[in-house]
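Reopening this one. Same input as before:
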Amino acid sequence: QGGSNFGRFAPSHPLGEEIPPEAAKMVAATGEMQAMQPTFAPSVKPGDIPKEYKLKRFYTGGDVARHNSSHDCWVSYFGRVYDLTPLLAQYDGPLAQPIIEAAGTDLSHWFNEATGEPKMHVDPVTGLQEVYCPWGRYIHVPPQGPESNWSTSFGTPWWEDTRYFIGRAAGRTRKVTMVNLLTKQKTTLEVPVEETVEEIRERYLVHNAHAGSYTWKRLGKVLNMEKTLEDNGMKDETEEFVRLGIDPDDHIPVIHLYFDDDLTEA
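Same output, byte for byte:
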């Protein structure tokens, strides 16, 4: 297999044939993958398919860590997040186990950053080059020797398959506290620095389904929901506090939510 560089495929790359036409067009136009809802094979029973979720542009490590089982398996590698639940729904047995045990974590150390392929090494016993997987051989990794039940008919190996891509890993995160001035409820969230205030509000909906019925303000100034916290003048001072030996959690910026007397938005 050639190096995939994880989503930076040329328009002629064979992986362009593995994904829906609209996603292939995005790859051709921008050189980047299009995040999409996971798709399951027809052989997977409806009862084994998890509930659909809304995709995000960016995910925190905490977002990924919550999906840590064989029936709900997210992983990240090289700054991207993948939902491998459909893969595990098709495979069982020992080759699935290393992936299940790594669910909810970052797998960058499994792969060669320059090529995007699994890391290789020379087996000290056979002297042959093979995939380096001390945690155990996993799905789509060939066996050391010939095996009658080994087939390459699966097509694209999962680590190159863009169908599992659901968004980017946050480059950095910060904390922000929302104070509902109607209920006096305080909620602190860890959010990607790249997210807009609107995207943060989407995260906050699980704590207040009517978050869309509030005006969000910082120090009395209405926030621009289409901009990031930084662009709204809320500088991230986490690193500076750490440098000064100050606990950043003692100085989390606060956003005040003013109720708009309209419960029609949720």
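So the earlier flakiness isn't reproducible anymore. For the record, Confidence is low (pLDDT under 50) at residues 1-30.
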